[in-house]
Amino acid sequence: MTTTYSSLLFVFLAAAITTNAQIKPIIKVGASQSTWKGEARNSFDQLLDSTNGYISSRNRSGFYANVGAEIPMGKVASFEPSIGYSQRGFGVRGNITINNMKIEALNARATAQMHYVDLTALLKVKPVAGLQLFVGPQVSYLVKNNLHADIAVLGFSLLNKDMDVTDEFNRWDMGVTGGIGYEFTNGIGITAAYERGFQRVDNKERFKAFNESYKAGITYRF
After folding, report:
1. For the segment 47-70, what is each residue's pLDDT rounded down to a tens digit?
2. How far apart are the first and last CA of the chain?
3. Each residue of 112-163: pLDDT tens digit?
4. The dihedral formed by the CA atoms of 212, 222, 129 and 70, expressed in degrees to the nearest 10
5. How confident is the model at residue 103 (pLDDT cuts 50, 70, 90)?
6. Closest by Cα among 115, 96, 110 to 160
7. Residue in 57, 39, 25, 215 with CA at minimum distance from that of residue 138
8. CA distance 141 to 5
9. How far does CA 104 lie from the centroid of its chain?
10. How far apart are CA 150 and CA 107, in angstroms?
11. Which residues pair with residue 179 across a beta bridge?
């Protein structure tokens, strides 16, 4: 599947370059909220519900940055290949207080901090001036995945450690992304996007979960 997605991106890029030479560089930066979705996550959430709020799941907050090129394919459509870096992951937090007071007897957190390189090919449509709708495939490569564990008792830190768990996860993820944006006449724009991976994050298939992210950021087209 990785070869298929990579070939598709290459074909789109080659076709666009050969048919239109009005290439305009574009950069994107922004913030993201990421989690895991799937049957394993649903079962895990049901288990957490039985803890009466003492243990809860949490998204991973991160950021992303992309560089690419916008290649017009007519008056209202364009093609945008890009390469970038993004942070994804998923976390769990446990919190126990003393006699319902705001004194934390135990505060424990574990977060999968995943770092990806993304290759994306977007088809963009501009139905009216400024407004942009976009969608396309995305191939991602996991560079590193740290499991960050943080445990504190009565406010005193007992453990604050990063563990490299990259080899336990699939290096490749293939998915789709899409969203909406608005670009001003000076080339600056704002975007909101959703992306979903189709490849299990666990390479040993011990659980069925997939990457999911929401992104918001700014763009600049030269």
Report:
1. 445 445 556 677 899 999 999 999
2. 34
3. 899 999 999 999 999 998 999 999 999 999 999 998 877 766 556 666 778 8
4. -60
5. very low
6. 110
7. 215
8. 12
9. 32
10. 8
11. 134, 193
Query: What's residue 48's pLDDT?
Result: 47
Burial of 190 (0-12, 13-18, 19+ CB in 10 A): middle
- DSSP assignment letter at 170: -
Q: Which residues contact 117 (CB under 8 A, 6 or more apart)?
A: 83, 84, 85, 140, 141, 143
**How does residue 208 score in pLDDT terms, banded at 50, 70 and 90?**
confident
Q: Classify the C-alpha dihedral 128-131-133-138 as positive or negative.
A: positive
Residue in the block written with tokens 């994804």: 88
Ramachandran area for residue 202 (φ above 0: left; ψ -120 to 50: alpha; else beta): beta
| CATH architecture entry for 2-221 | Beta Barrel (2.40)
Token pair of 57, please?
Answer: 């799941």
Among 20, 32, 39, residue whose Cα is nearest residue 179: 32
DSSP string over 142-156: EEEEEEEEEEEETTE
Structural contact between residues 125 and 151, judged by C-beta atoms closer than 8 angstroms:
no
CB 201 within 8 A of CB 173: yes
Phi-psi sector, 115: left (phi>0), alpha (psi -120 to 50), beta: beta
pLDDT in tens, 66-102: 999 999 988 899 999 999 999 999 887 766 555 554 5
